[in-house]
Amino acid sequence: MFDIPTREATLIELRRRLAETAPVVAVEPSVLPVPDALAGLLPGGGLPKGGIISLVVDDDDQAGAGTTSLLFSLLAGPTKPWSALVGLPDLGMQAAAELGVDLARVVLIPNPGVDLLQVLSVLADGVDLIAVASYHGPLASPARLRVLSARLKQRGTVLVAMGDWAGADLTLSVSVAAWGGLGTGHGRLRDRELVVRLRGRRAQGQFREVRILLRSEGVEGNGRVHITSAGLVPAVAQLRGAPYIASRTG
Predict the structure, then answer these.
(1) Structural domain tally of the chain?
(2) How far, in Å, CA of 17 to CA of 213, rounded?
(3) Which domain of life is it from (predicted)?
């Protein structure tokens, strides 16, 4: 018979893995850097440390294409953050690596068990960013969510929810505007243009939208991004070193 790990044994093993792979997380500056093309979209120019970010599909993008590509772009950002992917067993790690994600800095927790919030609290001690499947289970009481939020703020860890998350500080909705890269009658889709829109409590009442072009591996500086915000003049930024490989991971 196989032994079923207890909750305590699972948490002990999780802490051991973090100790082996992740350094002590610094809590400054106040934001986690992102690719230049996304910096103008976000208040403070990055992901707020200790904040909760929700990535959702736009209304016209029901298939959900784009959210995984955006997540991988964040993980492949300037600082290559230490991260954990929780409850997301179907993410394509090959696609992540080809987009620039350092897999040696990623902890995979495909099945976090019944107490997801406890697992997230433990992970907050050891990584810069946690990506998690959207959670609406019975343990997600307002009181427990507040405890998790306080832990994230204390440690300066960013939580990225792949879907709606109650009380998220920022919500980024993503849709695919265009595909490109196919040759005449052959080849594969190599380029993807994403539209990313910002809303949420920290959006300061502004509407912001950015278009980013993720190009195939090895092309740098060719992604042009137009940012529009209420009361602001549109700007253009460059997305450097953000290759994209077409896959079914989003």
Answers:
(1) 1
(2) 36
(3) Bacteria
